[in-house]
Design brief:
The chain is an alpha/beta fold. The protein has 9 helices and 7 strands, in the order βαβαβαβααβαβαααβ. It has one domain (9-250): Rossmann fold (3-Layer(aba) Sandwich). The chain binds nicotinamide-adenine-dinucleotide.
Length: 256
């Protein structure tokens, strides 16, 4: 039986690690052809190799999403080497934990770096792949956060919260504009997911994890695999009448 994403070509940014890697592997299991993008070429190649070893189809590309020209160049290479992209998952993102009133140079650097990747990167990649996505009546899935709505109860950079509010705004704006082209644009709002992004905090500051879990009805942190189902839903025909939405995958954090 054909998989949910048979005949689709999917681009996943930041797919060398964590949530992006899990989504790339999950999409490949549902028969999509994958273009695995990451600033770290080695981890991108590893994800693509693991997909192929499991019987799937994948190509790896090194890409810094903050580099607009590089995004255009990779989009051209994907078009010629892989084919017409019909699914884009904007997953690449970074986070820092400096407070706004903290050391000024660190706060300024956080702002610049986080906006460059989490927001400008989102723009750059989406713009670069817009033509094939429109031609394919494609789907865009943006990785947002509980911080698209709230600032979490643990120390965190305000730049990150601002950027993730922006991810949701961008999702809604594109859904409104591109719906007439048959392009659906949605977001996923993960809670605390165990990835290298927060590995150090989880290892060294269990009290911060406790604050988070005390506020999470399901009482556990998430795994990257917990995001695969929502991503498959939003990328496939299962969500044919869903656009401009955010699917929370946060153990219930936002409900209480
Ligand atoms: N882990 C969580 O708790 C959590 C919660 C909510 C949202 N998110 C979001 O999920 C997404 C993935 O995060 P993760 O937890 O899997 O982190 P991760 O650090 O495991 O993976 C992020 C990947 O993005 C890549 N990357 C970083 N900067 C890049 C750039 N400029 N260009 C291309 N690739 C780049 C990294 O090399 C890495 O492979 C991010 O957008 C993050 O904000 C994560």
């Amino acid at each position: 039986m054909a998989g949910l994403l048979d005949n689709h070509i999917a681009v996943v940014t930041g797919a060398g690690s964590g949530i992006g890697r899990a989504i790339a592997l999950g999409f490949a299991r549902e028969d999509a052809m994958l273009a695995v993008l990451d600033i770290n070429g080695d981890t991108a190649a590893k994800t693509a190799a693991d997909i192929r070893a499991a019987g799937g189809r994948a190509h790896a590309f090194t890409l810094d999403v903050a580099d607009r020209q590089a995004c255009r160049a990779v989009a051209a290479r994907v078009a010629s080497d892989v084919g017409r992209v019909s699914i884009l998952v904007n997953n690449a993102g970074i986070n820092r934990r400096n407070a706004f009133a903290g050391e000024p140079d660190a706060v300024i650097k956080d702002w610049q770096d986080i906006m460059a990747v989490n927001l400008n990167g989102l723009f750059n990649v989406t713009h670069a792949f817009l033509a094939p996505l429109r031609a394919a009546k494609g789907r865009i899935v943006n990785i947002a956060s509980i911080q698209s709505f709230v600032h979490v109860r643990t120390p965190n950079s305000p730049a990150y919260t601002t950027s993730k509010h922006g991810v949701l705004g961008f999702t809604r704006a594109l859904a409104a504009e591109l719906g007439k082209d048959g392009v659906r644009v949605n977001a996923i709002g993960p809670g605390l997911i165990e990835t290298p992004l927060n590995e150090k905090v989880r290892a060294t500051q269990p009290e911060l994890v406790k604050i988070f879990l005390d506020h999470t009805p399901l009482g556990r942190t998430g795994k990257p695999e917990d995001i695969v189902g929502p991503a498959l839903f939003l990328a496939s025909d299962l969500s044919a009448y869903v656009t401009g939405a955010i699917v929370m995958a946060d153990g219930g954090y936002r409900t209480i």
